[in-house]
Design brief:
Metallo-beta-lactamase, Chain A, seven-stranded mixed sheet, five-stranded mixed sheet, 12 helices, 14 strands, globular
Length: about 325
């Protein structure tokens, strides 16, 4: 599906204007998991930092997933919305670099640390775009088994109002934006956003820069898809591309290559163990990530946990 700029950023204006009064400040009607509430609490205490990547493209970082911002007279484009409690800080960060009107918010996938601010940003005038599966998952109860977390449906005003199934292109603020769906990787909803002239690529949570990634097996995540996603991003990028991971610092193609190589090596080691009949518990005990742990095991997951994720999603 390919839409021109007017269609891409204009189709949702009526939906945006009709948005419900925001509930992001007081939470959703259904009880949210403690993990989400803890994330919101952390976001209250975490500032938003802004890094200029191009004339009109910025990286915004806070408590949730990394965000990208494109400014210009044709309207602001924001990639991901962090936590609901970050919304005022995100709006302040945007106002510090631009007085342009709100236009489009693009979600890279369905997870709450990238979409919890949707309702507040929609109330600020943004129309929400995403892959069709992102809307489907946000509109229905979801379970992230690994964290024992059950998410209620998102409020109607938080849901993407414009979706696509494969790819979408728009010409906006002097640049060509290309959006494309990854095969199931971190989840089954992942997309990338490529600001082609600016040479900025946002790959969402298919890349955790500097540490082992989370693979959400309950909503379609697969280690093979993570490897394929990083390979695709490497094909798009050149040595000067500024690559925004879902979490972690801004990266380069060389950084992403090291991540891709690590994923591939760990997958191959674990796949060989699994194919030989070794159980998950015994595969973990054999420490297939040992050579990578000093570099990649400093985040949320150690090598043992990551081995389990890989084993279950091969």
């Amino acid at each position: 599906m390919a839409l021109d700029r007017r269609q891409f950023f204009g189709m949702g204006l009526a939906a945006g204007a009709a948005a419900l009064a925001p509930r992001w400040a007081r939470g959703q009607g259904a009880q949210l998991p403690d993990r989400v509430l803890q994330g919101r609490e952390a976001a209250l205490k975490t500032p938003i930092t802004t890094t200029k990547l191009y004339d009109n493209v910025y990286l915004l970082q806070g408590a949730g997933g990394n965000m990208a911002l494109q400014t210009g007279k044709e309207g602001l484009v924001l990639v991901d919305s962090s936590f609901s409690t970050s919304v005022p800080k995100v709006k302040d960060a945007i106002a510090a670099v631009s007085k342009d009107p709100a236009d489009a918010l693009i979600n890279t996938h369905w997870h709450y640390d990238h979409t919890d601010g949707n309702e507040g940003m929609r109330a600020a005038g943004f129309t929400i775009f995403a892959h069709q599966k992102t809307r489907e998952r946000m509109a229905t109860p979801q379970t992230i088994t690994f964290f024992k977390l059950v998410m209620p449906p998102s409020p109607e005003a938080a849901l993407p109002t414009i979706t696509f199934s494969d790819t979408m292109r728009a010409w906006h603020n002097g640049d060509s934006l290309f959006l494309a769906h990854f095969d199931p990787a971190h989840t089954d909803t992942d997309i990338y956003v490529h600001f082609e002239k600016a040479n900025v690529l946002h790959v969402g949570d298919t890349w955790f820069n500097g540490f082992y990634p989370f693979i959400d097996e309950a909503t379609g995540g697969r280690i093979g898809g993570m490897i394929d996603a990083s390979k695709k991003a490497l094909e798009i990028a050149d040595k000067d591309t500024k690559i925004i991971p879902g979490h972690g610092p801004l990266g380069t193609k060389a950084d992403l290559q090291r991540y891709h190589d690590m994923l591939t090596a760990v997958r191959d080691k674990v796949a060989a163990l699994k194919a030989s009949g070794v159980s998950e518990q015994d595969a973990v005990a054999k420490k297939p990530t040992a050579e990578f742990d000093p570099t990649w095991g400093k985040g949320m997951f150690n090598g043992d946990v990551f081995t389990g994720l890989v084993y279950r999603t091969i």
